[in-house]
Amino acid sequence: GGTTKDSAENNSGSNSGSKATANPNAPIKEGLKLAFLPKQINNPYSTIVNRSGIEAAKEFKGEAKEVGPSDASASSQVSYINTLVQQGHDAILIAANDPNAVCGPLNQARSRDIKIVAYDSDTDKSCRDIFINQASSEEIGRSQVKLLSDQIGGQGEIAILSATANATNQNTWIEFMKDELKKPEYSGMKLVKVAYGDDDDQKSFQQTQGLLQAYPNLKGIISPTTVGIAAAARYISSSEYKGKVVVTGLGTPNQMRKFVKDGTVAEFALWNPEDLGYLASYAAAALSSGQITGAEGEKFKAGRLGERTIGTDGEVILGPPFTFDKDNIDDFDF
Amino acid sequence: MTTLTSAPPAKKAPKAEGGLLDLVLRARELSILGALVVLVAVTAIVNPRFLSAQGVEDIFLNASILVLLAVGQTLVVITRNIDLSVGSVVGLVAFTTGKYVSGDDRSVVMAILIGLAIGALCGLVNGLLVSFCGVPALVVTLGTLYVIQGIGYYIAQGDQINAADVPQSLLDLGSGGVLGVPYLPLIAVLVMAAVGYYLRAYPSGREFYAIGSSPEAARLAGVPIRRRVLTAYVVSGLLAGLAGVLWLARFGTVVADAAGGWELKVVSAVVVGGVAIVGGVGSVYGAALGALLLTTIGSVLVVLKVNSFWQDALTGLLLLLAISVDRLLALRMNRVLRKRSAHHGS
Amino acid sequence: MSGPTPVLALVDVSKSFGAVRALKGVRLELYAGEVHALAGENGAGKSTLVKTFAGVHRPDGGRILLGGEPVVFNSPADAQSAGVAVIYQEPTLFPDLSVAENIFMGRQPRGALGRIDRSAMHAKAAGLFERLGVPMDPRRPARGLSIADQQVVEIAKAISRDAKVLIMDEPTAALTGQETARLFSVVEALREQGCALLFISHRLEEIFELCQRVTTLRDGQWIASETLEGLTPDDLVTRMVGRELDELYPKQDVEPGEVALKVSRLTREGVFTDVSFEVRRGEIVALAGLVGAGRSEVARAIFGIDRRDAGSVEVDGRPLKAASPTGAMAAGLALVPEDRRQQGLVMEMSIERNMGLTRLRALSRGPLISRAAERANAADWAVRLQLKYARAGDAVGVLSGGNQQKVVLAKWLATEPSVLIVDEPTRGIDVGTKAEVHRLLSELAAGGLAVLMISSDLPEVIGMADRVLVMHEGRITAEIPREQATEESVMSAATGRYGKEAA
Amino acid sequence: MALKTDGALGRFVRWDVLVTALLIAVFLGGSGMNPDFANTGNLSFALGDLGEIALIALPMTLLVVCGEVDLSVASVLGLASALTGSLWNAGWAFETIVPVVLVVGLVCGLINGLLVTKLGLPSLAVTIGTLTLYRGLAYVVLGTEAVSQFPQQYADLAVSNVPGTPIPYPVALFAVLAVATALLLHATGLGRSLFAIGSSEEAAFFAGVRVKRIKLLLFVAAGVISAFAGIVFTLRYGSARADNGMGLELTVIASVLLGGVDFDGGKGTLGGVIAGVLLIGVLRNLLMLDDVSTEIQAIVTGLLLIVSVLTPRLTAVVREARARRRVPV
Ligand SMILES: Nc1ncnc2c1ncn2[C@@H]1O[C@H](COP(=O)(O)OP(=O)(O)OP(=O)(O)O)[C@@H](O)[C@H]1O
Ligand SMILES: Nc1ncnc2c1ncn2[C@@H]1O[C@H](COP(=O)(O)OP(=O)(O)OP(=O)(O)O)[C@@H](O)[C@H]1O
Ligand SMILES: [Mg+2]
Ligand SMILES: [Mg+2]
């Protein structure tokens, strides 16, 4: 954020943040009021994340709730932030639809001493206290390429099936994928197309068909979105391309179980969304209780996940993404 | 006898006129068909795989759900009404039936029946509000769009139906077929043919057109307006329900807002298909063609490797092109007709 | 009265619409094998009475007797199933459906499995038009039919029901003599088959030619029911109007001034060709011809409704540019169109706003409309044309046919045009009002207005016109000066038999 | 033809009156039940959130009154936003961007208008097409980017209130435009013409009303206003994106219809529409404050629409039943 009104304000905001000194052994306050604001409610993935976050809050005797728009648009998120501010909460946990659009209101919130935890999809770093990253975006991007390369022997045309063209985290990952592909060991692989399924089953489905017809020698598809990978797998599993084209990406085990079992998909990755919500919840608590301020190097206890340290830019990384395959998929249920 | 007395004017030669007029009316369907053929031909030339068995199968599979909805919508639009709630109904039905069949394997037949029932119920509500309370269709169905959507979300609570939970037998309905012909298009075509035939060949069918063409005249002619309009909505709801079940069968993974925003898609299909939005004119065949055209455009643009960002723009452009060409054709024919009558006149 | 029981009868029927009391204790009896006339001024309540028979309106008071038994018609469907067929004053067709389907909607001849037998349907329809002596293609869609043709379809629809009772509300208003004659022979036939008929017309001579009994209404009140024998037209008029009637066609002779409207070589392909004529200030020029001759089309083209393919129009010497009614109005033209429901009036809009629509600018004070001026304008013309209405704020659609016609006239006369084109100005207007309209027209002409009058009513044409232009199949076949204008001369020209420059 | 005329309607409960009453009730109830509602901070949020919808609702009302509709408004808004972003990226001065964007909006409206008036296509069909087209162009212009960092002073204009009031500048502007539009619709010759066109286009044309020109004008107005709303939107959220305002058109139409404008044209009041817009806004805000879940919000909005048209009709039906079901023809 350069010279926007947003950044102007929040500079002051973050200053005030860092001025307050962290007290690592301050106890977690009871009855903290947290609010989860996902990109969009009724999205299975965020439902999982937030549910476990709300569970976590119970552990430290706080109360948490989930509110959010039914469409994944920045504007409707803003209205929710405003109401949350009105209602007065200790912390707002947000998965931003747009890093900048939400900044103004978020800083309003911070000026009222409401802590802001971004998770899953970051906001401009100037308008939140910390960001819980499901895994370093870089690691996700690069590992996806590796995953696919292993399955297609590093040779052939590949395509990416993303969510909406504006999804911040998607685009970051895709950048890293492109970068990874520049490496010599992937010289055999050629990214021919980035398609957008708008996280809509039917559209993702049709986009997949299109890709396969448009690029006859397509070897693999990476879909770093839960809706996309399911749609792609579903189409291929019921088409002549089954076994010829590899699908991988980010998906939930329950979604993908069928396609792993029937051999359409060998491997796909995801972090544990429950842990993500859990960690975010604890981070919010730590912030509100003054254990941390969001400065680099601070540490806090995150219940069963143990102690976590804040990295650069106030990022806390959940851990490396986990790779599912037919051997381990049945150990998970989410 | 004081008024002007004499032989009536030599009128246009009926036969020629009749034939031409039929052509004008059918031209709407024809022009869409033409557009479709051109589109497919061009694509096939650029990329032969587009017409591969798989490719063709895909086109029809994609279209069939939209076709079903378009047929239902046509019935409603012909009576000078509109049903914006279909998208929400599909979502609701897809999810609820999904919920029903998931878990311990339940009977597919039962699932379908439930789907149809829910759809019919939604249609009934719309129909009663429009026909008996006489409230403007657009407002009512915009309202029920929100309501039904809300109910869908409420039931779903953010959960999702996964392909794994859906019994294979139901999934087969979505991808399987009889002797090479997949079920979905088969169902769609059967429904279309049935409704189309009914509208054309049965007195009660014609009354739908009468109502849309002039409600006042319909009342004076003793047409049971309310009953027909109600029927139109119930059928539309019923088909939306069927579409919902097929949606589940086809995509396996379903969230509550499946088919969100499809109402506009359906309406454009119907309009492109030459069904007059003011009622009284059009056929389900045209609407079905419209649906086919729209879905084909969707696939074609990907197959032609059109830049993702241009896809929406071009879809819109082609849509406008379709209706404009259709319109120009109609105007042209009218002029021809007038010239014709000139040669008979003098 | 003793004797046979009436097939259908009204007893002390009353009906009011809000403030308007359309029917006050009216009684009427229709007997088998008799044609009963219903006479009355515009707004007397004739159509309301008809709609009561038809089940469109339910009477507030009184009863309907079917074969002596009281019945209740809740809807037109009920009346139809009771054997009552109705031709309404205003044709109401399905524009998108074929003429045949319009006739047989809901009663189509069935084939196997209850399917529509189209060929049979078209054959039947053709048969009906045969009976009515009108060649019309049953497959043709109803859209684009002239008022006259629409009326014919309505008639065909009604007689196709072979009903016990046939009710006709001004069926001949739009017809030419030829078609009227055929209609009458059909009606005669039905009467002999023992059908009971009710006939409404503002042309008294038709009533005397066709009917045996007559009932007169005045302001919704029953005045008399009597046999027509021994009754003179004047008696009937007095009963209707309640006073002696002044003379029709009071054309004053005026010295024509300079040319106000000059039409040269006007052509619209497929409708009319090479039409040229002039209308001078103070002149009333009639445009006569058969239905479909293209008279209205000429008027439309002059006024800029339709594009003209060739030719020019001059108003007061200034050429009129491309098709635009606004331009035509600015130049001083006014057109009273032939179809008042579609073209003449905005049915859902109030009477005063309809009257104001043609002169919005004149009624504005600065940018804003002055309601006061609007009201005054309406009130003024309502008086001048003796409009029968309840509140100036009511929708014009609730006015009786004739009163609607008056509103159309008012809204155009209000623009104080220099050339007035009237298409069938007295269609559906009662004798009294007709006289008023005629006087109005000749006054205006005397005041220097140039009038072009399209009419199918020959006496009107002969009576009012200084010159008669006759059209035949889209061409002007004759121009007849007032003194030579006789029914024969006009007729022969209209049918193309007469004529120097005939096609 | 069932005659629901100004005169006749007056005899029933009128939609716009009803809606206004409802608005007041909701407002009072809201301030009573929820302490967070009636404070200036929240109200100006709520109003600000309505800005764009309210602005677009004005030309939409005029269009619907004369029997047309424009579904492409939200896409024009998106296109305007995207264009603002890309031009700003390209280093243009904001002062030059604004007029350019407005002109683009004008062109969008012009295209809609010409297709409707020149080809005589139904506006519903045309604007469904342009809805897709314009949104697509937005993506062509800006792609996946999200541009921020717009000049301070303009950003402030979009968010801050008129000094001493809880009213954000865009809303204040809306108020002014609303009054102007109300006068235009209800007190000028043009307004009369709109109603005439709405209830009988042919008759209006015969009476010398410039039907096509007027319609064209309205579509253009809708285009320009939507583009302007796009700029406001962009500044308000400090972010220009191709998907801004997606799906807004239905909300706009919903509030217009809620305001009692007859979708078949010829009937409606601007007062009703304003009440409708506010009602939808206030209600949403209130439901959010009370933590009512999104799905329930949707249901409430829907029911509201239905009830708002049902109530007056039912009273009408009852009245007709009492008047022995007469059907004016
Ligand atoms: N031969 C025909 N067959 C069918 N319709 C026709 C024919 N000729 C004209 N029409 C239609 O009927 C209408 C009658 O033409 P027009 O009104 O110009 O003739 P007219 O002499 O004015 O008849 P009217 O006495 O009805 O005014 C025209 O609008 C035209 O569309
Ligand atoms: N639907 C209605 N609502 C209100 N008033 C009506 C309605 N229909 C008719 N009227 C009024 O009832 C009276 C009788 O109208 P009606 O149409 O029966 O007259 P009419 O005898 O048919 O006249 P015309 O000869 O001009 O057709 C008129 O004053 C008319 O304004
Ligand atoms: Mg009458
Ligand atoms: Mg005529």
From TrEMBL, chain B:
Subcellular localization, as worded in the UniProt entry: Cell membrane
Main location: membrane
Membrane topology listed for this record: Multi-pass membrane protein
Keyword Acetylation appears in the UniProt entry: no
InterPro entries per the UniProt record, alphabetical: ABC_transp_permease (IPR001851)
Transmembrane segments: 30-47, 59-78, 108-129, 135-156, 177-199, 230-249, 270-303, 309-330
Secretion signal span: none
Subunit structure: The complex is composed of two ATP-binding proteins (LsrA), two transmembrane proteins (LsrC and LsrD) and a solute-binding protein (LsrB).
Function comment: Part of the ABC transporter complex LsrABCD involved in autoinducer 2 (AI-2) import. Probably responsible for the translocation of the substrate across the membrane.
Identification of the protein by name: Autoinducer 2 import system permease protein LsrC
Taxonomic source organism: Actinocorallia libanotica
UniProtKB/TrEMBL annotation, chain C:
InterPro entries (UniProt xref): AAA+_ATPase, ABC_carbohydrate_import_ATPase, ABC_transporter-like_ATP-bd, ABC_transporter-like_CS, P-loop_NTPase
Protein name, UniProt field: Sugar ABC transporter ATP-binding protein
Domain ABC transporter: 8-244, 254-498
SUPFAM superfamilies on file: P-loop containing nucleoside triphosphate hydrolases
Classification of source organism: Bacteria, Bacillati, Actinomycetota, Actinomycetes, Streptosporangiales
CDD domains documented for this protein: ABC_Carb_Monos_I, ABC_Carb_Monos_II
Disordered, as annotated region: 484-503
Keyword Nucleus in record: no
TrEMBL record, chain D:
Transmembrane segments: 12-33, 45-66, 73-91, 97-117, 124-142, 171-195, 216-238, 299-318
UniProt-listed Pfam families: BPD_transp_2 (PF02653)
Superkingdom classification of source: Bacteria
Keywords associated with the record: Cell inner membrane, Cell membrane, Membrane, Transmembrane, Transmembrane helix, Transport
Broad class of where this protein is predominantly found: membrane
Membrane topology (UniProt): Multi-pass membrane protein
Subcellular location: Cell membrane
InterPro entries xrefs: ABC_transp_permease
Name of protein: Autoinducer 2 import system permease protein LsrD
Organism: Actinocorallia libanotica
